[in-house]
Amino acid sequence: MDRIQGGLMTEIEYKDIHEFKKADLQDLFLSVGWSSGHFPEKLQAAMRNFETVISAWDEDKLVGMICAMDDGVMNAYVH
């Protein structure tokens, strides 16, 4: 997906990864006012434990993510 930044088109890259730098998680979560951003070590552990984590990157900046936990049969929780 492309987006315009400063008049230039940039591409958002999506990654299926579970390992993140503390600062990346902290910056993303605090940017939307989530207090969990004050606990980046816990966020790192949470990302490792989620079944599915898809992150969105604008070059080397984490700009979004979706996480899911499921029972493997019919139910899923999306965060």
Strand order, main sheet: write it out. Answer: 1-2-3-4-5
**Quaternary class:** single chain
Beta-strand level of the residues, as a percent range?
35-45%
Low-confidence stretches: none
* Helix share bin: 25-40%
Radius of gyration: 14 Å
Anisotropy-based shape: globular
Mean pLDDT across residues: 91
Mind summarizing the main beta sheet?
Answer: 5 strands, antiparallel
Helical segment tally?
Answer: 2
Strand tally is 5
Structural class: alpha+beta
Order of SSEs, N→C?
A: EEHHEEE
First-last Cα distance: 21 Å
Quick tags:
79 residues; alpha+beta; 2 helices
Architecture overview:
The structure is a single chain. The protein is of the alpha+beta class and 79 residues long. Helix content is 25%, strand content 42%. The protein has 2 helices and 5 strands; from the N terminus they run ββααβββ. The protein has helices spanning 22-31, 40-49, and strands spanning 2-5, 8-16, 52-58, 61-70, 76-78. The protein has a 5-stranded antiparallel β-sheet with strand order 1-2-3-4-5. Helix 1 packs across helix 2 (40-49). The longest helix is centred in the middle third of the chain and has 10 residues, at 22-31. The chain is globular and about 45 Å long. It starts with a strand and ends with a strand. 11% of the residues are buried. The model has no long low-confidence stretch (mean pLDDT 91).
Summarize the structure.
The protein is of the alpha+beta class. The chain is built from 2 helices and 5 strands, in the order ββααβββ. A 5-stranded antiparallel beta sheet has the order 1-2-3-4-5.
